[in-house]
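Case study 2.
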Amino acid sequence: MFDSQLVMLEEDFRRITAVSERLVRDANSKGVFVVDKAGQLVAEAGEMRGIDSTSLASLTAGCIAATGGLAKIVGEEEFPIHFHQGQRDNLHITLVGGRMILVVIFDERSSLGLVRLRVKKAGAELAKIFEEIEKKSEQQASQGGSPFAEITDDDIDNLFSD
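Prediction:
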């Protein structure tokens, strides 16, 4: 697991969302979700925005953790790609950069082959973005700690006072 805490700026979020939205179009999918391995939703795009994305994120992370255990039992480090086929909708789940999970929900309007092809490109773009975010976070930590270090207790009290 990673020790450094990622601090994502608005610019980073916009880039991740843009890749997710492009993947929805290019793969002709219903929805795309970017989740961290701790189960936190990072970004979402597509027509599935109204679903319970908090549960989707935590269950996806749990699925990745469980299959990681299975992988170790059979001598693999992990299984980076998962596919779940349903009657109406399908899930394609991919590990991105060892830290993030890319979930694509698609139906009969698309195909597994198209999704896999488009996910490969989008996954590489996302991995690069998260690598840059991680480098910035590490630089910030080496230069004096958290970007939130200058926030005082008084600032927090003022924020939550009536």
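The chain has a mean pLDDT of 88.
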